């Protein structure tokens, strides 16, 4: 197995483990979705509601309870996956920064996050589809499940972006909840009588909502409307990539990024009393350990640059920053 695959497999494994350890998200999937769908079944009226289905351009008059199954399932999937991806991304920020400083390639970390996002979206989308199917059988079950999956994937990407941009968990969770509620509220005629406004085409859930309605009440597939979904995925990918790159950069005290050349050419000043640190780095194995004393900022720079340089030069060599402490 190549070193690139080992990097990807290791990062993906840790991402999936981190997802599995998020007990709140697991409880929300196991309890919130069936409770929410059951409440819709017994509390929402079946009065017909108008819905502008842009897949065919016609005005449908659909069962209000069944339409709420669509919007409610989408809302549940987006909230859970968005919260899950935000939480994992936010908590793993310092660890990702340390990995990148030690030479771990960014593309493999990002690929692992995308893999975990796809896996979470598949699980949550399939579960939400199954819960809806208990009470209502859409005309096209596969398209209904695809709508659930795409909505979860879109908001999972939004969760990753918010996880890299926001500093606190509370504001991130609040942002995801409000974005999802506003999105589904504006697109559902149950809440908004003006849901046929053309501006809803710019909302993140637009393509998924059209797919859900098409699956539930017609035999057509709104491919044109669903084409807006990759645009949201591309935007989230670009913003998330830039934010992740900036967030994981390692800086010196002067604010410049650390490179191996900077450390190799930089003079090592005599450490002042109380400022020295003890740096331990393993560069080849248990029998090869180097130690030195230097200022705190330079010790951090040496750890980052040495690890990155050794990992790039020799793929079969293990580089582990073991410790850094005050002398």
UniProtKB/TrEMBL annotation:
Positions the record marks as coiled coil are none
Give TM segment ranges: 24-44, 64-88, 109-136, 142-166, 173-191, 227-246
Q: Which domain of life is it from?
A: Bacteria
Q: Does the keyword RNA-binding apply?
A: no
UniProt keyword Transmembrane helix, yes or no: yes
Write the record's keywords in alphabetical order, separated by commas. Answer: Membrane, Transmembrane, Transmembrane helix
What is this protein identified as? ABC transporter permease
């Amino acid at each position: 197995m190549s070193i690139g695959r080992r990097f990807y497999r290791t990062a993906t494994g840790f991402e999936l483990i981190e997802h599995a350890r998020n007990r709140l998200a697991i409880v929300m999937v196991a309890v919130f979705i069936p409770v929410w769908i059951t409440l819709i079944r017994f509390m929402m009226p079946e009065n017909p509601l108008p819905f502008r289905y842009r897949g065919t351009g016609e005005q449908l008059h659909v069962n209000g309870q069944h339409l709420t199954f669509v919007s409610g399932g989408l809302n549940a999937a987006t909230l859970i996956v968005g919260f899950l991806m935000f939480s994992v991304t936010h908590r793993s920020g310092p660890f990702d920064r340390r990995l990148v400083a030690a030479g771990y390639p960014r593309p493999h970390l990002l690929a692992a996050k995308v893999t975990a996002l796809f896996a979470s979206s598949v699980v949550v989308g399939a579960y939400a589809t199954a819960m809806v199917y208990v009470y209502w059988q859409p005309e096209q079950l596969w398209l209904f499940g695809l709508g659930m999956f795409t909505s979860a994937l879109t908001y999972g990407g939004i969760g990753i972006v918010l996880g890299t941009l926001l500093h606190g968990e509370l504001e991130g969770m609040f942002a995801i909840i409000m974005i999802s509620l506003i999105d589904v509220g504006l697109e559902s005629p149950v809440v908004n009588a003006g849901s046929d406004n053309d501006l809803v085409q710019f909302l993140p859930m637009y393509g998924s909502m059209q797919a859900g309605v098409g699956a539930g009440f017609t035999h057509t597939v709104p491919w044109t409307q669903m084409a807006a979904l990759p645009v949201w995925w591309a935007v989230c990918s670009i913003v998330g990539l830039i934010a992740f790159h900036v967030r994981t950069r390692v800086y010196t005290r002067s604010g410049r990024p650390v490179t191996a050349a900077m450390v190799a050419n930089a003079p090592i000043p005599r450490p002042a009393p109380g400022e020295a640190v003890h740096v331990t780095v393993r560069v080849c194995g248990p029998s090869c350990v180097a130690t030195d004393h230097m200022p705190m900022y330079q010790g951090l720079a040496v750890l980052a640059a040495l690890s990155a340089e050794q990992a790039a030069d020799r793929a079969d060599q293990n580089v582990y920053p073991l410790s850094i402490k005050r002398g």
